[in-house]
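Problem: given the chain below (220 residues), write out its structure.
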Amino acid sequence: MQLTSPSLPIGGYSYSQGLESAIELGLVHDESTAGQWIADQLEQVLGYGEAPLWMGLYNAFQNDDESTIQQLNDWFMASRETQEMRQETQQMGWSLLQVAESLQWCSPQRINLMRSLDPACLPCVHAGLIEAKGISAQAGLTAYLFSWLENQIMAAMKSVPLGQMSGQRLIQQLRETLAQVCEQAHNQAAQTPLRLYNFAPQFAIVAARHETQYSRLFRS
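Solution.
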């Protein structure tokens, strides 16, 4: 819980991952459309790319497979469609690594391995710390996805805006999807080669337009 808490000082609250841009464009304007946008991103973007990648990284750390760790980290960095999204995962990965080193959450060898990736993306650092702490892959990925979901809901509450009860209703509805995404990620990560794809062109275009918004609350 500490590893995925919104109070962890890694800056997750400052990013909307395209949601603020979708609001600016009128694609998201109430509780229903916010829920649909977040659900689509969870199932079709994270579900096919980031979640199975996280699972693959966890397995690679478990097997001390440095080559696969490097390969998957590089794939994720290359898959970021916008400059803001690349900066986001790089900054949050670096910040989480700083916290882990300060609190001695894993061995110096594991810290040095993740530093050598330069830059280490957020899912890589998170998966590496979860495995180092002996937490199961299922629990770790569920917590990772719930933290993402909670940040999206908070972004929607601030910028749509939505009330607190709307936010709780969305969390209650969407958390049921987390188990499905985790199961799918497990199945994709069990295949050789690891099944990863990141094809969401409308999402990429909407996220890219965030960079030129007149005003904004979030960094992506």
